[in-house]
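To whoever picks this up:

The nightly regression suite flagged Coenzyme A biosynthesis bifunctional protein CoaBC as changed. Nothing in the input moved, so I suspect the structure step. Input below, exactly as stored in the fixture:
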Amino acid sequence: MRVVLGVSGGIAAYKACSLLRLFTESGHDVTVVPTAAALNFVGAPTWAALSGKPVSTEVWTDVHEVPHVRIGQQADVVVVAPATADVLAKAAHGLADDLLTNTLLTARCPVVLAPAMHTEMWHHAATQANVATLRGRGVHVIDPAEGRLTGKDTGAGRLPEPEELYAAVLALLEAAPDAPPALEDAPVGEGAPGHVSARAGSAAYGPWSGRKVVVSAGGTREPLDPVRFLGNRSSGKQGVAIARAAAARGADVTLVAANVALPAPDGVRVVPVGTTLELQEAMTKAASDADLVVMAAAPADFRPATMQASKIKKGEDGSGLRLELVENPDIVKGLVADRASRGASRPVIVSFAAETGDATGSVLDHARAKFARKGSDLQVTNEVGFDKTFGRDDNTVHILSRGSDEVRTVGPASKDVVADAVLDAAEPLL
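Regenerated output under the current build:
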């Protein structure tokens, strides 16, 4: 796919470097077209090195190749991130005083603009009118996120994270054949043509639109006393990546987060929990009308039989501490049993298994045995250890399917790539 990545002069230009890497590492051909102001934030050598192509802001560079026309004509998608208030105004009014704005005028492919600016600028009547004009013409404008801006300011106007932008662009392109044509006087806002969001529940024309997905993430904590707990090393990164990927496909996503310190994908419904029993209650409730449940959280297998009301003190005699543990319920088995009791085929249930090999069997030996016990439709198995999986940005998984001996291995790859592979495996069952 031939991507034109436009970058305008905002502090969020640094995020576009990561967006560029996401496109190039996925095999897409990317031409970066910055504005002159953007080069005050990220220099041309950086864009050239990351894209592998020369970078220019002027229509007069290589003029014999007519770049102000050619770049837009040959693109499969044009993405501008960040898009400042100035670029939005120029695009809305058809002004073309540099290579980027000329490219926007000549492009006949999908155009995606990701605004980023201070809150007051975003809410200004002129900016909102320009956005309305662009959306009315069929330009896809991604809503900015809310959060920390330049300096101490906080509010709407933050550029969404590169992973969210990348997923939103891919979801838009996948759904493009089903998208309605641009209208001259189209409505503005949620559901309107041209309205795109990096938020989960509102991805325009997503292929999973109308589906409800529930994802769990993180690791539960079982309190010993008001200070201490039994827990595990799960960061929740894989579960959050799956929630983000499902959101990008247009699904209505609920993320049940067990002690996750990561920001949730914008717009995903988050249910925070602490213990395994709380996780079980939240998952059972959320799964009752879901199409797909992905149990990516790591619930504790055991919990203390009793929780002490006050902090446990260290003994003077060095005798140590003895704990009585009781077994926690198996949440996946409970979800499978609940589905069977209703005589239903939904939700499709995906379980995760974090395994280590030992003297009694390999990782896959233990994974197959666990898969048989749990009764889920798919099982995603990863090998864990002190230097594997937990807290890392990459992962290697083995996907097992009910009724098949085939094992699909994905990775080493980013957790976003693994997330898409898991959803791709689940899709035929939906």
